[in-house]
Design a protein that fits this description.
4% helix, four-stranded antiparallel beta sheet, 1 helix, 15 strands, mainly beta
């Protein structure tokens, strides 16, 4: 599929990507910066070449609101995050689901890959953070004890520190804060030394 050519506009620093038939809800760059994936209200997900602006793939998807898209470090897998508790790992090439990650009981707010691509971390309105094996879909660990929904998770570039942000109650003393946890460290002890070596 070639799609429509990009629309050339007077400003040489900008390029318009044409093809969607309704509002564009979300976009994300691949890790290498060569591709963009977009989700639209026209019920399609489209893949674009960043440098030419051409559409190189289009898949019809049922109508849903996609919060964001996570790319694997090797650029071969994506995880679209819809407005529910499902997490699916898809092949970027075929757009077919390779693995379902089952466990969250409420909306999933964010999903991220570890730098090596072997682990996924997700945060949810069910007040948990879950850590998954990308290859098998197995839940490696579940972090509980958060009193409110987990709205944001992030990993450090070396994958050894995890940041967790929750929707704080304004009446709480430590409102408007986030925590940084060390994998395998005394304040978390999330993964065993063997798991740290395998997934990070």
């Amino acid at each position: 599929m070639t799609g429509l050519p990009p629309l050339v506009i007077p400003d040489p620093t900008r390029m318009l990507f044409r093809g969607h038939k309704n509002y564009v809800l979300n976009v994300a760059f691949s890790i290498d910066g060569k591709l963009i994936v977009s989700k639209s209200d026209d019920d399609t997900e489209r893949t674009w070449d960043v440098y030419t602006g051409r559409e190189i793939g289009c898949v019809k998807k049922p109508a849903y609101f996609m919060r964001s898209i996570a790319f694997s470090p090797n650029g071969k897998l994506i995880v679209p995050i819809p407005h529910d508790n499902t997490v699916q790992i898809l092949s970027l090439e075929t757009r077919k689901t390779t693995i379902f990650l089952k466990g969250h009981m409420d909306l999933v707010f964010q999903v991220i890959f570890s730098p090596c691509g072997r682990m996924i971390v997700s945060g949810s309105r069910d007040c948990t953070v879950r850590i998954w094996n990308v290859e098998t879909g197995e839940e490696i660990k579940k972090l509980e004890g958060y009193r409110r929904e987990v709205c944001c998770v992030a990993l450090s570039p070396n994958g050894r520190k995890l940041t967790v942000s929750t929707h704080n109650d304004p009446s709480e003393h430590n409102k408007y804060t986030f925590t940084v946890l060390d994998f395998g460290g005394p304040n978390l002890g999330t993964l065993s030394p063997e798991e740290v070596e395998l997934y990070i």
